[in-house]
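User: For my dataset I need records formatted as: sequence, then C-alpha cells, nothing else. Please produce one.
Assistant:
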Amino acid sequence: MTNLFRRTLHAALLLTLVLMAGLPTYQTRTSFAQEDGSSEVVVAGSRYVQDLLQKLVDNYNATAENDTTVQFDAQGNADGFTRLCGGVVDAVMATEPISDEQLLVCDTNAVEFVELVLAYEALVLVPSAGAPATCIDQSSLPSVLGEGGAAQLNWSVINPTATPGDITLYGPNPESQTVVGFLASLLPDAPRTDYTQYESPQAVVDILKDPASMGVAFMTFDEWSELEDQGGLTPLQASTDQLLTCLSPDEGTIAAGTYPFRRQLMLYVNVTAFDKVNFDEFAKYAVGAEGLPVVDDEFNFTVPVQAVLDRGLNNITGPIVGRTFTRPNSPVTLNTAAEGSVTVNGTGLASTATKPIYDSFTGTYANVDLTVGAMTNDQSWGAFCAGTASVIQVNRPPTEAELATCSENNIDPYTITFGAQAVVLVVKADSDLPVCLDYSQLSAMLVQNVLDPQAGTLNPDATAEATDAAPTEAATEAPTAEPTEAATEAPAPEPTEAPIVPLDPAKLQGPARWNEINPEWPDRQLLVLAPSLGAIETDLILATVTDGQQVLRRTDAPIVQMSPVNTPNASGATDIPDLQYRVGATAHFDGAITYALWTAFQSDPGKDGVRVVQIDAGNGCIEPTAETILDGSYSFSYSSMLVFSKAALSDDVVAALLWQAFNSDALIQIETLGLVGFDRAALEAERENIFTMIEEARRAAAEADPDAESSDTTPEATEEVTEGPTEEPTETATETATEVPTEIPTEVPTEVSTELPTAEPTEAPTQAAQ
C-alpha cells in the first residue's frame, strides 16, 4: 500500500516534520457515516472552489434520481487538509496540492484519500500584433503583473532579448476573480492594479490587432479560447528555465503542468466518503461528461483533458489512493552524468516518431549508450515476448499468439502509440482512370519486368543484379539526419529500395498504357511520377504489393523520378518542392499517377486537383481516411509505437527512456509530423500513469530481491531534469513554394526527353530532374 510504503520511508522524519508543521495528530480515523449513520458529506477547504463544487452538486441533484447531501465549511486550504488528515471531514476543496507534512499526518492517522482534478485555471498574456517578444520567463511575471513592477512597462521587462519599447498593460476588473483569486496565487506579492482596464477580452483583442497599439493584455486561457475572433494574435509562450525552453499554453501543457502560469482546482476525498449515500455517483458525475458543461460555460476555468478525467474516474472506482496528480515532477532517479546502455529493437518506419525522443534522451544522458537495432515487426515482438528485448519500436500491435507468449513469460507490455502514417496514390480529379487498384495491378505498374505479379517473379536478368531487397517491413536503423522539408513530411529511414539496374531504354519493363494493365481501362499513356530514389513511400508500396519479394522499381519511360524543379520567377530562381510539382502535374495530365505520404498530401496546395485512389488488398476497395489509416484497414498505412516491458522499468536507464518519451520538447517535434491520431494533450496527461508504473516496477523488484540494496533505499522521486535540448521549435515550418505547373500537355509525348527540366512543364514530365 502507498501509505505503508511512505510510513516506512519517512518514519525517522515523522515526529520532527509534524512538530514543524504545527499540525495535530489523531490516533483514530473519524467518519461521520461510521459514527452517527449520517449520509451528509462534510466538505472543507478553499472557498474559491466552493462555487464550482456547489454548482456541480446542484446540477447533479437536479438530474439524478437520488440526491447527495453536502455540507460546506470552507475555511481555507490548510484548515481543510488538517481536518481531512485528522479524519473529521469527508473531503477538501483545494487550490494547491497537499504538502508532504500534511501527507505524513494522513499516513499516521491511516486516512486514505482519492485525488481528483475538477478544473484548471491558466493565465495567458496576449501581445499586440508584431510584438518583439514571443516568450516570457516565469521569473519575469512579478515585474510585469506584480504590485512592485515597473511603473512604465517595456518589452525588455517581458523579455530581456526583445527590442526595447514602452507598452501598455491591459487587464480585467481589478476586483474580478481572475485578479483577486487566481493571479494573486501566481505572484509573491499582490497583483498590480495600475493597468488599463478592458471591457471584455474581445474588446482588448480588437485593440491589439493594430500593430501600433504596442501593448499586452492578460486574461484566462478559457477566455482566450472562447474568443470568436482572436485577431491572428498568439499568446506569449512561457519558460521556467530562463527562456531556454518556451511552451505555448494549450490543453496539453496546462494538464501536464509544463506551462507554469496555471493551477489545479482539486477535490481530495476520504475513501470512506464513497460509502455515503450517492456520493460516489456524484464524484463520478463531477469528473465526467455530464458535469463538464458547468466548468466550461459558467466559470473561466479550463476543462481537464479526457485522459485526466479518465484517471479521476479510475481513482474513484479503484479506489486508487494517494497523490496521483500532484506528485514531484519526475520519477527518474538517473543522474544526467550516469553511464549505462539501452537497446531498442524494431522497424525503421517507427523511427519517424521515435527519433525526437532518442535525440532528447541522448542530449540529456550523454554517457548512456542508446542503440537502435534493426528488426521486423515479427522479430521485434518475438524478442520482446521471449524476454530478450525490453524496449521495441513497431508498426503494429501484437497478435493474439504473441500476447499469449508474453503472458506465458509474465511480460506485461506498455505501448505508446504516437499515431499513424500512410501512403496515398492520386490521379487527375476528373479523370476516368480507375477508382481502385489491387496489388497485382500496382505490381504491373511499378515493378520492373514482373512476369507473375502475384508471386513477384522477376526478370532473371534484373534479379541477378539485385543485391538488396525491399523487405516486407522496413528494418532499418533510425535515421540520423534532421528532416529538411517542411515538417509535414516524415523523415525516411535508410533506403530499402533495391538498387536500380539500368536496362535498354527501348525495352519496356512493364505496361506503358493503362489498358495494358486492364483492357477495360482507357487506352491512355501511363505516366508514374515517382519521388526520388530511396523514398519511404516507394519502399512501403513495393514491399506491400509483392509480399516482401526482392523487387526493383521500374526505370523505363512510364516512370519519371522527380526531385525539386528549379523554376525562374520575378524574384529569381525558386525550387518547386518535389511533391508539389508531382501533384500539380498529375492534376493537369490525364494518365499520370503519383503517390505521397498522407500528411504531406493533406497540406499540399494542389490536392483539390487530384483524387485519391482506393486500394484493394483482397478484402475490397478501401479509401484512405483518418479512420481507415488508424484502424489499419487501409493497407498502405502503418502506426508508430514504442513498447516497454513494465518489469524492465525497475532499471533506471529504461525508466528514464520511458519518461523521456513524454518530454514536452520531443512531443512538440512529433506533433509537427502530423501523424494521424497523435494526441499531445493525452500523452502529456499520461505522465501520472508512468509515475505509478515506475514506482510499482521498483517496488516489485525490491520485493523479489529483498537483499538488494534498493530494497531499503529506494530513491525518492526527483525534480524533473531540465538539461538536454535547449532549443525548442516554436513554429512549424510553413514556407513552401506556391507555384505549380500551369501549362499542361495536350498531347501525349512520344519520346523520352534527354534534357533536364529547367522551367515549369509544358509537356508531361518525362525525365527525372537529377
